[in-house]
Each structure stands twice: as C-alpha cells, then as structure tokens.
Specification:
single chain; 4 helices; DNA polymerase, domain 1; mainly alpha
Length: 92
C-alpha cells in the first residue's frame, strides 16, 4: 500500500485583522466604490473612504444604502472576493 504524502489540512491558517500583515485598503476602496457605482451613488476619494473606515460594514451600510444595504453588501463582498488576492500588499 502506498501512503500519500499530500496533507489533507494546512499546518497553519493566518488571519489578518485590520491590516496587521497585509495592506488591504486598495481592495476595500475599490470594492466600496464599485458598490456605490452599481447603486447609482457618487464615488468617494480614497482619502474620504479611509477617513470613514473606522466602522464596520454592518454599521455603515444600512445608513448609507438604506433598504438596499443587503444588496450593497452582496456587491461589495462579490467584488472584494474577485479582486483582493491581486490587490493586497504585504506590510513591510
């Protein structure tokens, strides 16, 4: 019998919370503006987006998008998932 050398699970999983290991602001900014655009709202500058990024999506989206906040959340996360691996940068 031949034993497989392929592991079925990783040795470790790293989570980056609030830009500890990688700079995640570009994918957040791009995803946020794509959400605004798709819902017919004016895009924001990067500076304005970062200035207001101290609150969570669940705190800000209902106020900004009103009854469409769940739709906005789907757009944001779909866009983020599509681009984040190409747009993140390691912190040095």
């Amino acid at each position: 019998m031949i034993k497989s050398t392929v592991k079925s699970s990783p040795d470790a999983i790293l989570f980056d919370w609030d830009n500890t290991l990688v700079n995640n602001w570009d994918p957040i900014f791009i995803s946020y503006n794509e959400t605004l655009k798709k819902l017919g709202l004016k895009k924001k500058s990067k500076e304005e987006t970062l200035k207001n990024a101290k609150y969570s999506l669940r705190e800000t989206f209902p106020n900004l998008f009103k009854e469409d906040w769940r739709k906005a959340r789907k757009i944001f996360y779909k866009t983020f998932k599509k681009i984040h691996l190409q747009k993140i940068k390691p912190l040095t």
